[in-house]
């Protein structure tokens, strides 16, 4: 009977760990520098000439577009990191590529190297 309980207990523990809240890992997916915890990146959008910068720090980002700064807070995302501002701007980024949404307009943007 004990031999059956050990694999069952291990399986139950793994299932519980897999079902845990992923918000903490979402924040960890955001671009970071190990030394400072703050990094600024520049992106270029494919369908327009929009070039903008995003400064990441902890669970917030400041997106500067057309000389206007948008303070954004991290939100839950299935993959990558998603930031939302109070003025309706959304930035969803993963591995150097992102989607910028402003109202009905959506643009795909890539990290400028």
Secondary structure layout plus pairing:
Layout: H1 2-18, H2 23-29, E1 38-45, E2 51-57, E3 60-65, E4 68-75, E5 81-85, E6 89-94, E7 97-102, E8 105-111
Antiparallel strand pairs: 1-2, 1-8, 2-3, 3-4, 4-5, 5-6, 6-7, 7-8
Comma- or semicolon-separated keywords:
single chain, alpha+beta, eight-stranded antiparallel barrel, 8 strands, Lipocalin, 113 residues, disordered N terminus, 2 helices, globular
Q: Give the strand order of the largest sheet, numbering strands 1, 2, ... along the chain.
A: 1-2-3-4-5-6-7-8
Helical residues, percent: 10-25%
Proportion of β residues? Answer: over 45%
What's the CATH H-level homologous superfamily? C-type lysozyme inhibitor
* CATH architecture designation: Beta Barrel
* Largest sheet features: 8 strands, antiparallel, barrel
The whole-number mean of residue pLDDT values reads: 79
CATH class identity: Mainly Beta
Taken in chain order, the helices and strands follow as HHEEEEEEEE
Termini gap: 60 Å
**What form results from the Cα inertia axes?**
globular
CATH topology: Lipocalin
Structural features, described:
21% of the residues lie in helices and 47% in strands. The protein starts with a helix and ends with a strand. The protein contains two helices and eight strands. Strands 1-2-3-4-5-6-7-8 form an eight-stranded antiparallel β-barrel. The radius of gyration is 19 Å and the shape is globular. It has one domain: Lipocalin (Beta Barrel).
